[in-house]
Design a protein that fits this description.
five-stranded mixed beta sheet; seven-stranded antiparallel beta sheet; Immunoglobulin-like; Jelly Rolls; 35 strands; mainly beta; rod-shaped
Length: 480
């Protein structure tokens, strides 16, 4: 890192999640941004001359003293410096301004200037940021004036000022002036006294170039309200990058029904605020419905807008509603045409499926990369379920027509069955609740007399999502 002169700052603008992201590598236009390019560490420790961190230099006639120095973490262990929170190298500038009865009795400011890596273009927007510590020095019993006056001046010509006085905000018009986040906090300095200082902070902002700016100057600019000013600014990690001309949410796109995408607008490098068309202010927006989605990003110096249209792709699968089937008489389930792929629950891959048994049948289809699923409940049909009972039987154990029993091809769907047989006096002599159990012609173990006997049969059958109660009656002749 010591020989680092230029830096590349990666700016990534993320678009639709499934589309991907693109990164623009923006060049840092500030040379030696961490002041690690130290030509002589020994000299840096002894006279703290800013010119030891080329190409940085002092643009005015302010003298170097204990309050104006270049220090580098690469040269000195951090524990030996009160400003150790600033990593790597840093530069410190000092300013003092005092009046007595309206007369200026002290006016001194130190600055740091450097040529930019390249000339700024007219009309382009640029973003600057740096880490900094502000200290109102020498104020052991109170704070000095804290005004919004620390800033940057970008100029076309090499800055050179004839005296050591503070540069006036009104006269020089710096492009960036930072809000000094002042904290009433005490620290003990290396000189043994306490002062009030603002903790390490990030100073950042943007501006539009007029064109041909080739130099940057950092420091304290004289505020009109100054009467009693004594302050220092220590800073490092400077960067100046050209801002994108626009944001891009990507091309119009589509998603599958039931899915979602996330519109991303990560733009945090420029401390933005976000506002989507629905009023939400997050950097991302989850989308599950079709429509036009727009985003406005506001930075301190400009506003970006973009929009993207999202469509929902729906394979529109609708197979036949719940139906019924007679065992042995198959029906055909149709998933529809025009899909790229079919897969039924039994593994079939055709648009249709022939079934002859009750159950739940599911199909999955694919079109344009989107999946859709549907299912149909196939019930046993009561309309084709018949129960037959003989008009006569011969319980003589010859193996032929020995029982009075039910014959049916749909015994698996019969429920709540009850078969009753009566004698000539109306007395129940046989009862069965099993479709497979018939009457053998006996009552209480004794063979019944030859003759006619009446019977009744009660049972239920399913019909789609309901049940149908059935009743049959008749006469059977018992023969020997």
């Amino acid at each position: 890192m010591r020989n680092l002169l230029l830096a590349k700052i990666a700016l990534c603008i993320y678009t639709l999640a499934h589309v991907g992201s693109s990164c623009i590598y923006a060049q840092n236009l500030i040379p030696n941004p961490r002041f690690e390019l130290i030509s002589d560490c020994q000299q840096a420790l002894s006279n703290r001359n800013i010119e030891l961190a080329p190409p940085w230099y002092n643009p005015n006639r302010a003298s170097y003293n204990s309050n104006y120095y270049l220090a580098a973490k690469v040269c000195v262990p951090a524990a030996q410096w009160i400003d150790a929170p600033l990593s790597d190298g840093f530069i410190g500038t000092y300013s003092v301004y005092q009046t007595d009865a309206g007369k200026v009795v002290a006016n001194q400011g130190t600055y740091a200037s450097a040529p930019l890596v390249r000339t700024l273009e007219a009309g382009k927007y640029y973003w600057f940021k740096m880490k900094a510590i502000i200290a109102n020095v020498g104020a052991s019993n109170g704070s000095k004036q804290e005004q919004n006056s620390y800033g940057l001046l970008f100029s076309a010509n090499r800055p050179s000022y004839v005296n050591q006085e503070l540069l006036s905000i009104a006269q020089y018009q710096p492009q960036l002036i930072f809000t000094n986040r002042y904290y009433q906090e005490r620290r003990t300095t290396s000189s043994g006294y306490t002062d009030n200082f603002a903790a390490r902070q990030l100073m950042q902002g943007c501006f539009q170039a007029k064109g041909n700016e080739q130099f940057v100057t950092v420091g304290d600019f004289l505020h009109p309200n100054y009467t009693n000013r004594s302050s220092s600014l220590q800073f490092t990690d400077l960067s100046l990058t050209e801002m994108p001309d626009r944001i891009d949410l990507g091309p119009d796109t589509s998603i599958c029904s039931g899915q979602k995408i996330q519109l991303n607008a990560h733009f945090s490098q420029y401390a933005p605020t976000y506002r989507w068309q629905d009023g939400s202010t997050d950097s991302t927006l989850s989308v599950t419905q079709s429509g036009l989605y727009s985003l406005t990003i506001t930075c301190s110096c400009r506003t970006y807008t973009d929009s993207v249209r999202v469509a929902i792709r729906n394979p529109n699968l609708q197979i036949k509603t719940d139906t019924s089937v007679c065992q042995g008489s198959p029906i055909t389930l149709i998933a529809g045409s025009g899909f790229d792929r079919y897969r039924w629950s039994d593994g079939s891959i055709t648009p249709t499926l022939s079934v002859d048994k009750p159950g739940v049948y599911q199909v999955e289809v694919e079109r344009f990369g989107c999946l859709a699923r549907d299912s149909v409940q196939v019930y046993s049909s009561s309309e084709c379920c018949q129960l037959y009972l003989p008009t006569a039987f011969t319980p003589n154990t010859d193996g032929i027509n020995d029982e009075f029993s039910i014959t049916t091809g749909c015994s698996d769907i019969i429920r709540e069955l009850e078969l009753l047989v009566y004698d000539r006096w109306g007395v129940v002599i046989f009862r069965s609740q099993d479709v497979k159990t018939g009457w053998n012609g006996n009552h209480q173990g004794i063979p019944c007399m030859v003759g006619p006997y009446t019977w009744q049969l009660h049972y239920t059958l399913p019909y789609k999502k309901s049940i149908v109660r059935q009743y049959q009656r008749g006469t059977v002749m018992l023969l020997h």
